[in-house]
Amino acid sequence: xxxxxxxxxxxxxxxxxxxxxxxxxxxxxxxxxxxxxxxxxxxxxxxxxxxxxxxxxxxxxxxxxxxxxxxxxxxxxxxxxxxxxxxxxxxxxxxxxxxxxxxxxxxxxxxxxxxxxxxxxxxxxxxxxxxxxxxxxxxxxxxxxxxxxxxxxxxxxxxxxxxxxxxxxxxxxxxxxxxxxxxxxxxxxxxxxxxxxxxxxxxxxxxxxxxxxxxxxxxxxxxxxxxxxxxxxxxxxxxxxxxxxxxxxxxxxxxxxxxxxxxxxxxxxxxxxxxxxxxxxxxxxxxxxxxxxxxxxxxxxxxxxxxxxxxxxxxxxxxxxxxxxx
Amino acid sequence: xxxxxxxxxxxxxxxxxxxxxxxxxxxxxxxxxxxxxxxxxxxxxxxxxxxxxxxxxxxxxxxxxxxxxxxxxxxxxxxxxxxxxxxxxxxxxxxxxxxxxxxxxxxxxxxxxxxxxxxxxxxxxxxxxxxxxxxxxxxxxxxxxxxxxxxxxxxxxxxxxxxxxxxxxxxxxxxxxxxxxxxxxxxxxxxxxxxxxxxxxxxxxxxxxxxxxxxxxxxxxxxxxxxxxxxxxxxxxxxxxxxxxxxxxxxxxxxxxxxxxxxxxxxxxxxxxxxxxxxxxxxxxxxxxxxxxxxxxxxxxxxxxxxxxxxxxxxxxxxxxxxxxx
DNA sequence: ATGAAAGCGCTAACAA
DNA sequence: TTGTTAGCGCTTTCAT
Lengths: 326, 326
Fold this sequence. Notes:
Oligomer: homodimer
Number of strands of chain A: 12
Distance between the termini of chain A: 64 Å
Order of helices and strands of chain A: HHHHEHEHEHEEHEHEHEHEEHEE
Largest interface: A-B, 41 and 41 residues
């Protein structure tokens, strides 16, 4: 069923049908308008968006390239993106890259071939700039602290503010000796998390003590090891953890030592992974506004697509989720 | 950059370029072939898949309509689908319906407009048959026990076998008095889970005792309440739970009563939700082959698209994940 | 071994 | 108020 067949049934030209279908019907008589609409309804006509896209040079679809939808962070992101896109009349093509450059590049190329109007992605600088060279597809980069020359949007989260708030919260709750356990990664987010802790300590005139800092991996083991080490070396009544897994390890160590959480030592995490609310005790943690990141990415991307003037970088605030571990 | 421009640069016709780009170059001289390929490479030419789709009447893209990617079950499904689709050269458009018929219908319509080659979906019978009336898009239905007239594929999981295996496992582990706590839903999966338990009990010549069966909701509360009730009424040394949440409630009740799991009472769940491995004790549970469901759905869908003769229903086996609660 | 031309289904400028 | 027509970028048949 095509527009042409509808036109024949209604004894009009396909141009006329196209006009009423697209609301450009100021000059169409009400009679023909009704007649066409009825036939369209009766025949269950479905417009061919591919033909329309070819003509209009716009597919009303966006691509998203993320490492893995099975990762809770990215599934929430995907949902935020899809919801926002749908509201604006866009569909989204999903691509899982597993953080592999080869897959990123391949997917971006496919998306470009499919003429998506824009791409939201978490990818390496190399993949992005490479594909930008081929075709200047509007893009918004998520959760990656790299800057691409040219007009690629960026959405990032204020990691420093996150640990700053968590540490401040521990101080508010009466902690005097606060440790920090996190990853030794040298990348931006990890550095910012340490910085946020430092800033809170310093601003509150507390001692910044090397013995209270343990940096290794974003794992349960690191949390356990770090806590045990600190307990050996110094007095602590609060630990700001670089992520929730570390917090889980810390709680485990504390339990083994018979130290009550939060009575004796208070704990904060970072990320708010799904299990955090089921822990014993439920974990106070810093949550990234993931869903909102998705929404903002879509807003920014569509603005770029529509060539509106937009701020090309957006920094989102974290949210402190208070539960029973503090 | 279009095929026509490439053609001009190479001093050939666009037909020739098209041929070498699509490997239909048996009759193209090696010289021109090379020349064209070089120019394509040098100019970073990206084929326009939209134009190709219009001509070929195939978009090489699939649609998926699921309630919510943020739900772990569906994110794994989505991943399975996307991986399998990618391997076969298809992209996938993601749609979240929140189980609302209105959204399902709207999304299916959009997918049909975008001329997807097929749709994998978890949706109501009404939405499906309605959209099938408009256009006969190949579809595969997931995790829904409804049958549509016509050629809609179905992938389902053998729920009965799941609880049968779980209960048998409890028996193997020496349980003599096994309870069953589940949902009172009258839908297929719930009924099948009860049936699997019954069958295992009966086949092993154990008494089928109403006091050992508690049916209410798929919630932690039901698990707790059911366990407490059973404990009051009868002796039990094993509980087969209809899902993991119920198992969590059961373990909670047992702990409160000072009854050791798995020493005194062994527990099995169903679903293997993410927290299950972190529980104390880690939960033995029945896992649905979710990722595989996605893969199978894609295989079946593509077979339908290619008009191959295929079995239109596939029943997948569950997997018993043994951990420390049994 | 290569090219001309038609046509996929739609929109829009222009004509009537 | 409606229709004619060209063209979006591609593939493919048929001719050369």
